[in-house]
Specification:
5-stranded antiparallel beta sheet, single chain, about 200 residues, 4-stranded antiparallel beta sheet, about 30% helix, alpha+beta
Length: about 200
């Protein structure tokens, strides 16, 4: 084997090792990593007077949140995480650009309009969310609107979609066609490169 071929082979071996090497994190570090603003798992879209923050919630993230970010052991963590496979979940936070007013109350003309807005989020909005997964168009399997009752300046939609795969093997593009504030179609994509990063993270208990 000549020197050039030997160097190329060495570089390829190093690349393979770096691809398979696990990045260790504590649960707190993992939470910060997933929630990082501007990171690959949290997308912010500004549309007119509103801000939509789309947070992808991997199974481990959900399992840890259920256990208040503290597991008894790794078996408990793995068991619950595996049970959550096959459905992808997002939190969609809806706030105003000013941050001074809750979207349900922003420029509302009165109680009747407020109730119409609330009814829309409770009973209709789920029909206007679509997850594009490769060539598939998926509609929600789970939907909850968490009403803050105007106590804070944002409300939250929790929405889930069942995949044909246990874990995503294609990019995830969430779209919401706004029928309430006329802000158009809101899009947020989690790329395959970002999703594959999860395979190289090892959380320590």
């Amino acid at each position: 084997m000549n020197k050039v071929a030997s160097v190329i082979l060495s570089v390829l071996v190093l690349i393979c090792l770096s691809c398979t090497e696990k990045r260790e994190m504590t649960l707190a570090q993992y939470r910060n990593y997933i929630e990082a603003k501007g990171g690959g798992f949290c997308k912010t879209v500004t549309a007119g007077p509103l801000i939509y923050t789309v947070q992808y919630r991997p199974p481990l993230y959900i399992a840890a949140a259920e256990h208040k970010w503290q597991f008894n052991d790794s078996t408990e963590m793995k068991t619950r995480t595996m049970a959550l496979g096959g459905i992808v979940w997002f939190n969609v936070r809806i706030g105003t650009v000013s941050g001074a007013t809750n979207p349900l109350k922003s420029d509302v003309s009165g109680v009747a309009e407020y109730n119409d807005r609330l009814n829309y989020w409770l009973t209709q909005a789920a029909n206007h969310f679509t997850l594009y997964y490769g060539d598939l168009e998926l509609k929600p399997q789970g939907y909850v609107f968490e009403n803050s009752y105007g106590l804070i300046s944002e409300d939250v939609v929790v929405i889930g979609f069942r995949l044909p795969d246990t874990t995503p093997v294609r990019p995830l593009r969430l779209e919401y066609e706004d029928q309430l504030y006329n802000t158009g179609i809101i899009k947020a994509e989690i790329s395959m490169d970002v999703l594959q990063e999860l395979d190289h993270i090892q959380v320590k208990i």
